[in-house]
Amino acid sequence: MAATGEHGRNQPRRVLTTADGGLLLFRVQDVPVLLAPSWWIGSLVVVVLYQPLVDRLLPGATAATSWALAAAFAVLLGLSVLAHELGHCVVALRMGIPVRRLRLFLLGGLSEVARTPREPGQEGLIAAAGPVVSVLLAAFGGLLLFAVPPDGAVWLLVAECAVANLAVGVFNLLPGLPLDGGRLLRAGVWALTGRRASGTRAAVVGGGIVAAGLLVWAMLGMVSGSEDRWLRLGVCVVTAWFVAMGAGSELTAEANRGWPEGLAVTELTRPVLQLPAESPVSDALAAAAGRGVVLVRADGVAAGLLDEGAAERLAETSPQAPAELAAEPIRAETVLLASEPGEEIAERVRETAAWQFLVVDDEGRPAGVLRREDLRSALSARRVR
């Protein structure tokens, strides 16, 4: 299984280049679906390696036909991955878990969820959705084979679609991260032990075994002289690398996500002070003194949190300017509930582009200000111990 924009739904449909170099194909409930540049590289490799196999399957086909069918297989493989990832995306959204984007790259895809599932059941359902879609599409393609003339180009094209979906579904069920089977394994261990970290470690080990198994299978194909040995070697090497890197990333993310036992969020928050938004910026700076400052307008609406860096720069030239001019807006993602689990707070802080966060109690009243560097220092100190 990883940013929504403000493009209106009534705007003309178009393909745009995104900041990270991917192509915006379309949106699903405001979730952008991106095609990364590496997808073209992976598809080209598939075409080159698959074309000789088409020649063997259709001995009478012309060169143009075999290359066209090889290209069709690469496209069908990409569409199969897309359908697979859409399964994850739709289920996550139905569970109320935001999805930043869906991205297709090299020989795979990734649905980037905005937050970690809170329960093993959620993790398991989201993980299972993709393979279920792939297996259903493979079954449909298999049934369709009986409706088309055998041994022709159309039959091979339908067979390619069925095989592509079956390959995507079965491969992703292998029990190792970052594959769906690894996420299912993590969900199972998490449910049994009550610890997500234990599930992650078990699934990371599974990822290592899967990567090693792929390399062994590729080598066996080379030794035995299998007809698809070069296709197998190319796909297995790239996929083994992807699995190994993904498993390592999952382990690192789990370590960063951890929250020390016994550490309360309130221990890390700075006292909060409310000041009128029109207060002179120099006075607001003096009143801050290590505290978080919420600037409130005359109508009672919060103008934002005082940005001390911006306030210091403003005070150098205009010490009597309204402090509101140096306010950092309070957004929904920068408001933390003091009663939230520590792991979720750490994840929110890590993924949100802000250096300070307003912490509120269950009644919505300001309870303190959490600064990114304070959280980082506290977590690092606890881990060292």
Question: What would a concise description of this structure say?
Answer:
It is found in: Cell membrane. Helix content is 55%, strand content 15%.
Summarize the helices and strands and which ones pair or pack.
Blueprint: E1 16-17, E2 23-28, E3 31-35, H1 37-57, H2 63-94, E4 99-105, E5 108-113, H3 120-144, H4 153-172, H5 180-193, H6 196-224, H7 229-257, E6 272-276, H8 281-288, E7 292-296, E8 302-306, H9 308-317, E9 327-328, E10 335-337, H10 342-351, E11 356-360, E12 366-371, H11 372-384
Parallel strand pairs: 3-4, 6-7, 10-11
Antiparallel strand pairs: 1-2, 2-3, 4-5, 7-8, 8-9, 11-12
Helix pairs in contact: 1-2, 1-7, 2-3, 2-4, 3-4, 3-5, 5-6, 6-7, 8-9
Family: Belongs to the peptidase M50B family.
Subcellular location: Cell membrane
Transmembrane segments: 33-54, 66-93, 125-147, 153-174, 202-224
